[in-house]
């Protein structure tokens, strides 16, 4: 079912893209991104001031870059790597945009760097593990925000092609957990995905005890960060591995589920009391 995107401005579409990413709604991301690309192209082509028109909150290169990058990520998640590469090529070369100010130049350079990172991502997802050390070096030299997406890619590739990345996980474990502990809105989805894939990785490496411990940790993180998507995936994986859980792990799982039920019951009771008072 197609989305009704008529009447939405560029910034509203940008917010919808971010929400769709959090919900892992890849088809919606592609549709919204296409709408944003079309809308910002019209603004750019018809505007006398290419950087600040139509009450845009950000510069034109930002919207081109963000929409193309978002579409590329969605295509990647759907396994359409060739089309994802086309998007990468487009947002790697935004220097054609006229009237760039300092912010505009920053966005052009930012998306050029992101394009390089995402090209590595596709290489790894296609099984080109020969570039792994080069990619790790790229992560070392990149901004902190690249760490969790980078680890997610490495884990996805290692799970798919069954190779060990223990040395990488040891190197970045402390930094990754520090990012998760700060729990910014931007990092929540990435951190929960990282922990879930880490559990999957331990499972594939036949380290069942560590896999289950990581799932239990993912439960706690998902609850704390209110990430329902991550919680559902962790719940599914736990059920697959339940028979490998020891008594202590089963008790931890039981306590987590009990806490959720008690919390929901308390909230429901408070809502009933509030409704009763409103009728007085």
Q: Overview of this structure, please?
A:
The chain is mainly alpha-helical. The chain has a domain at 1-126. The chain is built from 12 helices and no strands.
Q: Low-confidence spans: pLDDT under 50, at least 5 residues?
A: 272-279
Cα-atom Rg, whole angstroms? 22 Å
What structural category do the secondary elements indicate? Answer: mainly alpha
The span between the termini is 44 Å
Tell the overall outline.
Answer: globular
Largest sheet report: none
Helical residues, percent: over 70%
Q: If helices are DSSP runs of H or I spanning 4 or more residues, what is the number of helices?
A: 12
Task: Calculate the mean pLDDT score and round it.
Answer: 87
What string gives the helices and strands in order?
HHHHHHHHHHHH
Would you count the extended β strands for me?
A: 0
Q: Quote the beta fraction.
A: under 5%
Describe the structure in brief.
With 280 residues, the chain is mostly helical. The chain contains twelve helices and no strands. It has a domain at 1-126.
Layout of helices and strands:
Layout: H1 10-22, H2 26-46, H3 60-77, H4 81-91, H5 102-125, H6 132-140, H7 147-161, H8 166-182, H9 185-204, H10 208-225, H11 228-241, H12 247-279
Helix pairs in contact: 1-2, 1-3, 2-3, 3-4, 3-5, 4-5, 5-7, 7-9, 8-9, 9-10, 9-11, 10-11, 10-12
């Amino acid at each position: 079912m197609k989305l009704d995107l008529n009447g939405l401005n560029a910034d509203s579409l940008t917010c919808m893209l971010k929400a769709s990413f959090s919900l892992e709604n890849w088809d919606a991301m592609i549709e919204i991104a296409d709408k944003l690309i079309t809308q910002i192209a019209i603004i750019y082509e018809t505007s006398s001031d290419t950087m600040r028109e139509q009450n845009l909150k950000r510069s034109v290169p930002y919207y081109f870059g963000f929409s193309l990058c978002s579409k590329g990520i969605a295509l990647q998640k759907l396994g359409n790597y060739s089309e994802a590469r086309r998007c990468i090529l487009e947002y790697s070369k935004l220097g054609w945009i006229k009237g760039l100010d300092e912010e505009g130049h920053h966005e052009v350079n930012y998306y050029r760097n992101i394009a390089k990172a995402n090209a590595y991502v596709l290489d790894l997802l296609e099984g080109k593990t020969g570039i792994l050390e080069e990619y790790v070096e790229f992560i070392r030299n990149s901004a902190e925000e690249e760490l969790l997406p980078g680890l997610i890619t490495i884990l996805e590739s290692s799970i798919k092609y069954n190779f060990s990345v223990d040395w990488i996980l040891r190197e970045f474990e402390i930094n990754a957990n520090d990012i998760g502990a700060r729990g910014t809105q931007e990092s929540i989805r990435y951190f929960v995905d990282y922990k879930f894939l880490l559990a999957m990785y331990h499972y594939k490496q036949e380290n069942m005890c560590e896999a289950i411990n990581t799932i239990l940790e993912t439960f706690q993180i998902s609850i704390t960060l209110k990430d329902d998507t991550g919680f559902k995936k962790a719940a599914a994986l736990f059920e697959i591995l339940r028979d490998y859980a020891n008594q202590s792990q089963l008790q931890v799982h039981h306590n987590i589920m009990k806490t959720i039920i008690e919390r929901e019951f308390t909230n429901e009771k408070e809502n009933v009391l509030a409704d009763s008072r409103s009728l007085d």
